[in-house]
Every structure is written in structure tokens, then in C-alpha cells.
Amino acid sequence: MVLLMRDEYVGPEPEGASIEEQGLGWKNSFGSGVGSDTITSGLEGAWTTAPAKWDNNFFENLFNYEWELIKGPGGAWQWTPKDEAAQGTVPDAHDPAKKHAPMMLTTDLSLRMDPIYEKISRRFYENPDEFADAFAKAWYKLTHRDMGPRTRCLGPLVPAEPQLWQDPVPDVDHALIGEQDIAALKGKCFESGLSISQLVSTAWASAATFRGTDKRGGANGARIRLAPQKDWEVNNPSELGQVLQTLEGIQEEFNNSQSDGKRISLADLIVLAGCAAVEAAAKNAGIDVQVPFAPGRTDALQEQTDVDSFAVLEPTADGFRNYLANGHQRTAEELLVDRAQMLTLTAPETTVLVGGLRVLNANVGQSELGVFTKRTETLTPDFFVNLLDMNIEWASSTSEDVFEGRNRLTGEIQWTGSRADLAFGSNSQLRAIAEVYGCDDAQEAFVSDFVAAWNKVMNLDRFDLA
Model-level pTM greater than 0.85? Predict the structure, then answer.
């Protein structure tokens, strides 16, 4: 009956309605079209005796009555109390002279019938104040989950204590390093024996977890040293552990040598070391550049880190590091664009970062896939020069999603690349950008643009700098 009335009296959905409806759609021509003439999904009724009032009546009705399945007034199957006392306790939505029994859906009754949910529901039924507090916290989480850390919340109603789901980090409680300290620490990083590739890879792995969609992730907190990030396959756990151990030694030595309370966090040192590595790689290419660095990050504790919540941030595809785990239905280039969007990067920023990270040898496991250069750890636009070289003919290989670039004359394999790599020569928009960096006079512009994009990623979670 409901379906027949819907077909006869309810107009098309907003997108299908005529233009003058201005997005309203589902226009009801039955009777007055509103109030008691409203055509619903077929499920009709209310759960409590005072639907517009906060109380514990939902759980009271759930546990105090026995329920039976009926076909409701709207024609759909729903549950009604067997108890006579429940009749006439719920006001009608439109007519104050009418009263009804409360209703429940099967999903509602599952909160009582399921053995696990029953314990939770009964606890709330017996402890209304606890239920009100739990609801307030859950509602706060639901409506603020995508806003990032507590520092981004404004107003007198913001809870004083940050919540675990807000990924809290400690406040800065010490003096920050200055220019002389920065220069000295850069030197210590290179004296340690860590390579440009290792420093760049670690900084990128730390910062590139950021998601612009919900403002989570990023370098602040140095959670790359904590579970679960330290064990992610994409982060090369064995090598990561060695790099972090070395950086922690540098951090400890510096902090212990200070008499004025000045300290550097590991989160800051990871980013600073990556910036120093980019500067060194640019110098290897004959260009002196200073990569911006702003101290002020702090180190989160394991107890401030919800392991299960952070597990969903694990990259199973990162085209910037030429990493693609098994099981993806979407292509590597599509997943690269998705990752770039999460990092709030533009097409030019994405292009220059991929090209730079390839020649800096920042692939997962230092794979040679897409490393189109003979001079790694040198910040050159070689990736674009060699990708666009017309002397190279690309063809698929025996390995899935791996392509071979062969010399057209000799047939010798010059390079191997992924779909994410070849997208910069195949996609018309990305190729247009790649050709800019592939020009003979692009070296300085390439370094400058890479540094700017790198700095953006390193500071994506620095809301205190905005």
C-alpha cells in the first residue's frame, strides 16, 4: 500500500524534480501533503512518551515491556508492546487529541536481545546519569571527529581535557632551538653516518600520514616511533628503527648539553634532519638552498596514542614512495591522486614531490622502480628528463604493473617504472607539468618548487603556525 501511494502521490527525488522545485523534490500530492497526510517509508511511530525531551525513556520502554511484531499504520513491519499499560502513552506527531503506543524497530530490540549489547543497554537503563554522560562524550566525538586536535576547537564549551580520539600531544614546556642550534644539529645528523635517503624517507614517513579530510596524522607527536606506525610495512621497520635510534642519540646528546632548559623534540629532529638532507641533495646538484624549518613539535606518549584508531592511517598505497600493497582494485595512479588529495596537494606539488623523492632514493625498500637517474641523492629533475626521453620506449614487463623503458636502438633496458611513474608521461595534465621540469633550464625552478612542496607537507599538522 505504501509503495502504491508513493508511486502515485510522491514526485521525483530532488535531482530528478523539475528545475523550479529548486532541489526540494519528493513533492507529496496526497491530501494536504503534510501532517497526517505525509507519506513515509512505512515505519511510523515514536520510541518515547516525550519525543522532544531528553530522558531515559527509550531504555525504560525497551526493558519494561514485552514486544510483538506487527504491521504498523504505515504498512511496514515494526514492534509494539504487548502490555496494555503502554497503550496511549505516546503523543501523536500532528494531532494533540490522539495517543499511541511506543514502537521499536528490530535494530532497537537487538540492544536488549544481543548478549553483548544487552549488558551495555541494561547498564544505561539502570544508570541514567552514566548514560547521559556517555552520550555527551559520544556526541562530541561524532560532531568533532574531523576537526583535528583540541587546539582547533574554539569557545567556552570545549572540554578542558583533550580526548584520546583527538590524538593529543604534550604542550611545549621548554625553550625552542635557535638558528645556531639548527645548524649544529644538521651537522650532527650527517656526522652520524645516516644517508640523505634515510633522512628524507624517515621525515616523509612521519609527515605524510596527514589526512586533510579529518586533520589527523602528521609529524607532530613523532608517533612514527610508536605502535602501530613503527611496524608498518611501508615504513621499512628494520631500517626505521636504526634511523630513529641514531636520531634519539643526537637528541639526547643535545638536550643533555643545554643549561638553559632548551630542548629539541624527536618530532622536530626528524623533520629537521629531512630538511637538512634536502639541502644537501640540492647542494649535490650545485644549488645552495635553505629549507624552512619551524621548531615547536612535541613527542606524544604511547598512552596518548589509540593503536586501533591509528591503524586506519596505515598507507597501503603511497605513490610518492612507489609503494603498493597487494589487494587493490584501483590502479596505482588513481591511488597516488587519492594520497595527494589527502595531503591537500595540487597537481604541480604532487608532480615535483614525486620527481624529487624518486631521485632522492626514497622508495620503500629503496626499490629502483621509477628511480630514473644515475646520480641518486642529488636533487635533479632527472626523473622527468628520462621519463620523457623519446629515445626510450616503454612496454609492460613480466611483473605485474612494472614497465620497462628500453633504448629504441639497442633494446637495452634503461629504466623500470610503475603505473604511478608512467602517469606523468601519459596523463595530459601531469605531462604538461612534467615537461616544464624536464626542460634544460628547469634545475633551479625544480629545486625551489620541491622545497616549497616539501615544507608544506612537513607542516601540514602545524595548526599553531597558521
Answer: yes
